[in-house]
Amino acid sequence: MTRRLKFGVAAVVLAVAVACGGFAPGVAAAGPPVAGKDFSKPAIVILGYGLKPDGSMRTILYHRVLTGLAIAQAFPQSPVIVTGGNPQNGRTEASAMRNLLLTLGFPANRIIVEDKANSTVQNAQFSVPLAKAAGTSGIILVTSSTHQGRADQNFADAGGNMLATVSFPDGNPSVNIAQFVRDVLSPMTAIG
Question: Which InterPro entries match (predicted)?
């Protein structure tokens, strides 16, 4: 990851965590929750991306997982839902993401695998019930900047309580900057 991209991911993590009180786990917020959103136990949902024919991860998916991992570290009480089917060489997007998280030392008991979805609409339809069943307060959605707008709407349409968005920059600079601004504001505004 380049220095600029690392800075961008770090800035989004910091903005989301500060807005929701994620860096002070034992300390009560000084005022009411931001925009009425409850960040006490968000589900971090990382959206899949097509695997290579040999079943290995494409760079975009790798970056999405690293971005989700950074957010998950700010919310140690939260599960991470990895979502994506579309198997290649016997491996699904979700299983590839789970394996990467485990390789990076993320605890297996915090990972929820949704490996049936074959589209963003299905990612939402299958992940929202998993987040609710896990007793979470809502969803922080992680994907790429060129995909975030459509994904946000799909998750809102599926009944997800959308708390925030976090996007790895993957488009041209103007798309990346515009989505970065939406990501920073997302803890304080309606999504979808």
Answer: Cell_Envelope_Assoc (IPR051599), DUF218 (IPR003848), Rossmann-like_a/b/a_fold (IPR014729)
Q: Is the pTM of this model over 0.90?
A: no
Tell me the pLDDT tens digit for each residue of 44-98: 999 999 999 999 999 999 999 999 999 999 999 999 999 999 999 999 999 999 9
Q: Which two tokens mark 58?
A: 């494409």
CA torsion sign for 135, 75, 104, 125 is positive
CA atoms of 165 and 187, how far apart (whole Å): 8
**Four-CA torsion 148, 150, 153, 155, nearest 10 degrees:** -70
22 — pLDDT class (breaks 50, 70, 90): very low
The answer to whether 136 and 80 are in contact (CB under 8 A) is no
Mind listing the domains of the chain with CATH numbers?
70-192 (3.40.50.620)
Average pLDDT over every residue of 178-185:
92
Count Cβ neighbours within 10 Å for each residue of 14-32 and write b for 16 or more, e otherwise.
ebbbebbbbeeeeeeeeee
Per-residue tokens: 123: 């990612």
